[in-house]
Amino acid sequence: MDAERDYCPVHEAIQVLQEKWTMHIVRALLDGPLGFNELGRAVGGCNPATLKVRLDHLEDLGLLRRTVHSQMPPRTSYELAPAGVDLQRVIDAIDAWAREHLDIVAIAEVDEESSVAVG
Amino acid sequence: MDAERDYCPVHEAIQVLQEKWTMHIVRALLDGPLGFNELGRAVGGCNPATLKVRLDHLEDLGLLRRTVHSQMPPRTSYELAPAGVDLQRVIDAIDAWAREHLDIVAIAEVDEESSVAVG
DNA sequence: GGGATCACTTGACAAACTATAGCACTTTAC
DNA sequence: GTAAAGTGCTATAGTTTGTCAAGTGATCCC
Fold this sequence. Notes:
2 copies of one chain form a homodimer.
Chain A: H1 9-17, H2 22-29, H3 36-42, H4 48-60, E1 64-70, E2 75-80, H5 82-85, H6 88-110
Antiparallel strand pairs in A: 1-2
Chain B binds a DNA duplex (30 and 30 nucleotides) through residues 19-21, 35-37, 45-53, 68, 70-76.
């Protein structure tokens, strides 16, 4: 149930990052603080329920900071904490990898390379 | 439904990597090829159904190669393709980040920092 | 005053993931 | 020679996770 038997920070990190939308959220927030709905749109349409859960989790982990500017009308901003900002390097690595390898996947779809399939 | 309207390889990459177990699978495979069950155990108990789906997806994307050594007794090995091996850098980035930031979370649990809770 | 917007919350629902059993067969142990 | 354990999967039922639609209370714009 828990990874504590042989605690591995990488495993833990992967657990966090693999939650749906988490990396998208971080990526969006790397460009600067955003409001709740704004963020939802930025990540490409995450629903508010999930978004809130993720945001809470991320805040719990100390990766982001939630600032309430006014209760009514509600106005909140979400901003990466230093630990969250450091995820930039992870996102960058993904970015570099993606440009190098996923683009060719997109190209391969247009190309005709499917003849050497495993059959 | 699809990200094709403004195709972004990073977005695509995140979609792949955020699927449950994907990064664990890659990480396990970075140490060398593994058989199906072996891999399942290596990633820490992924069930065969999900594992197969991930593996197929990863193979589709050209990130790994599946080699059938013998049909009976069944013996297959999964091995990262070059594109998959390159994910090493992503895993490394996560690794570095995790050691820097998630360890302190683990420490914080032992520490008594829970008095400033949100409640 | 009506409609849009904000940051969420709720509750019903669907999609994703999990556990477990089983298949067809070989290898190993005795 | 037989039972148990192993291989790579697949099927199915069940749980968890994520989604959709609607709604809340207040303020802004017209």
